[in-house]
């Protein structure tokens, strides 16, 4: 068993730092809003590059396959550094690691805005990918610095901020594509990240919760190599070919390194990830839900935006450009924002597990409905909105459960692992849609597009993923009830 020397471990999140004793409700709300901006900045840098991909090969004098690395490298880097930064945040302070991460993101954004050299752009996007680690660390910070009763609301606000950033990124990118130089995509992130750095420095207090341990460099290296290998398979498998040697060798290497990494963590006196803690049913089951919901979340986003942009000649597309599609996605985002306080109140009243179960069932029904009703604009938007509302509920419930299941000194690293599994789910959704798009195709004029069956298949798979989430939640409730039943009753004599 790993023993940590914990500095200033509080009895509860409500007592963790001075803010909870001297702060007001207004100061708590300010901290929540500032930390939620991390989610908006992170998703902005992810989504704003997407509309540029068709033009980047000609702009950078490279192939479409090479240009796609500007997306792939961000996802891979983010997944690799998230558990590492989470562990460092538990050791050296969460606010400190958020600010260091912001410096890396802003530096990468400035580099991207100042160059047209493809290798430097790859480096810039890799540095931006480090921003994916900010969200789990910012969420963990809420547990440390907010009164206990305000933590679920803060988590729900963070979930809503991810939807806001995704929706805002598309119309902003559309304006840039139509009116400005493409480098403005990077300058927007540089400016927003710089402003966020200043605000966090002034508003967010540092947590007094730190685990005084050593950093597991060997474990970090092996985990990073394993994740890079596995995520390359998910991101590039459809381009390489699923049976080609690049795909098979990368998958084999990733699995081998992951199998090697587990005993390394078990033997380490200061593991990067506490495998024993992660294997406990309350943590393992919540992380399983996170991967499944990550798949559903990205599937909903990918399919919706493609349906809006598909040509009318396909028989099911709406024929919008990227700016129009982004603007029409805003109402679905606003619905998610409205659900943030609802999620907080529901978790406080009914419990996070009950909310996760009900929201998972609602999501599965909504995905099935979308199979049959996604042929007109109003059907697409209503379906995407219903799913977006359910995803805010599930996201808030999952984050609440993971933080309740781990010691406060492990919050950031546990959130990092949870975010990593959600990233694997989103990468799997992207790879699955790419595969479905090669199985079912339709010709419109001289162009080949994915057929509606490809998108229907994604809805069915997402429905299955959310049903699996509901089933996992039921198992989670069973373990919780059994654990409660095993507790000795106090003596009445």
Folded structure, characterized:
The model is unreliable at 1-23 and 484-493 (pLDDT under 50). Helix 2 runs parallel beside helix 9 and helix 6 (94-114) runs antiparallel to helix 8 (134-145). This protein has a two-stranded antiparallel ribbon. A two-stranded antiparallel ribbon has the order 3-4. It has 19 helices and 4 strands. The protein has 493 residues and is an all-alpha fold. The chain is globular.
Give a concise summary.
The chain is built from 19 helices and four strands. The protein has 493 residues and is an all-alpha fold.
Provide tags for this entry.
single chain, 493 residues, mainly alpha, two-stranded antiparallel sheet, two-stranded antiparallel ribbon, 3% strand, globular
Taking Cα atoms only, what radius of gyration do you get, to the nearest Å? 22 Å
**Low-pLDDT residue intervals, each spanning 5 or more residues:** 1-23, 484-493
Average pLDDT number: 83
Major β-sheet, in short?
2 strands, antiparallel
Please render the helix and strand layout as text.
Elements: E1 5-7, H1 19-22, H2 25-47, H3 56-60, H4 64-67, H5 69-92, H6 94-114, H7 118-129, H8 134-145, H9 151-179, H10 184-203, E2 210-212, H11 217-240, H12 245-267, H13 275-279, H14 281-309, H15 322-350, H16 352-372, H17 377-405, H18 411-439, E3 441-444, E4 447-450, H19 452-486
Antiparallel strand pairs: 1-2, 3-4
């Amino acid at each position: 068993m790993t023993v940590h020397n914990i500095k200033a471990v509080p009895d509860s999140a409500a007592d963790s730092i001075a803010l909870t004793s001297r702060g007001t409700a207004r100061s708590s709300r300010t901290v929540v809003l500032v930390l939620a901006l991390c989610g908006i900045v992170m998703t902005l840098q992810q989504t704003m590059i997407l509309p540029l991909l068709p033009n980047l090969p000609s702009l950078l004098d490279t192939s479409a396959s090479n240009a796609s690395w500007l997306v792939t490298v961000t996802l891979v880097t983010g997944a690799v550094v998230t558990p590492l930064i989470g562990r460092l945040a538990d050791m050296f302070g969460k606010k400190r690691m958020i600010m260091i991460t912001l410096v890396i993101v802003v530096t990468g954004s400035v580099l991207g805005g100042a160059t047209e050299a493809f290798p430097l752009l790859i480096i810039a996007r890799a540095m931006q990918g480090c921003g994916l680690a900010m969200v789990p660390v910012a969420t963990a910070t809420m547990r440390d610095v907010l009164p206990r009763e305000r933590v679920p609301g803060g988590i729900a606000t963070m979930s809503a901020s991810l939807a806001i950033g995704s929706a805002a990124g598309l119309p902003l990118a559309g304006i840039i594509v139509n009116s400005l130089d493409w480098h403005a995509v990077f300058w927007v992130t540089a400016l927003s990240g710089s402003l966020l750095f200043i605000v966090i420095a002034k508003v967010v207090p540092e947590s007094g919760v730190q685990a005084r341990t050593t950093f597991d460099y060997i474990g970090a290296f092996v985990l990073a190599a394993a994740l890079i290998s596995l995520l390359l398979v998910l991101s590039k498998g459809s381009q390489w070919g699923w049976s080609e040697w690049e795909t098979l060798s990368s998958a084999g290497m990733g699995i081998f390194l992951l199998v090697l990494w587990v005993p390394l963590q078990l033997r380490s006196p200061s593991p990067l990830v506490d495998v024993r803690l992660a294997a406990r049913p309350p943590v393992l089951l919540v992380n399983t839900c996170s991967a499944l919901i990550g798949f559903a979340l990205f599937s909903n986003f990918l399919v919706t935006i493609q349906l809006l942009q598909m040509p009318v000649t396909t028989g099911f597309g709406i024929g919008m450009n990227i700016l129009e599609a982004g603007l029409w996605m805003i109402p679905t985002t606003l619905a998610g924002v409205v659900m943030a306080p609802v999620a907080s109140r529901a978790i406080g009243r009914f419990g996070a597990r009950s909310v996760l179960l009900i929201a998972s069932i609602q999501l599965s029904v909504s995905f099935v409905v979308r199979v049959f009703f996604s042929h007109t604009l109003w059907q697409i938007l209503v379906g995407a909105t219903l799913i977006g509302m359910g995803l805010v509920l599930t996201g808030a419930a999952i984050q609440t459960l993971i933080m309740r299941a781990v010691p406060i000194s492990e919050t950031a690293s546990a959130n990092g692992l949870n975010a990593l599994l959600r990233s694997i789910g989103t990468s799997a959704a992207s790879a699955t849609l790419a595969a479905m798009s090669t199985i079912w195709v339709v010709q419109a004029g001289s162009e080949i597009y994915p057929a509606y069956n490809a998108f229907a298949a994604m809805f069915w798979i997402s429905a299955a993923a959310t049903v699996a989430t509901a089933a996992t939640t039921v198992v989670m409730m069973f373990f919780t009830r059994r654990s409660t039943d095993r507790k000795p009753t106090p003596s009445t004599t």
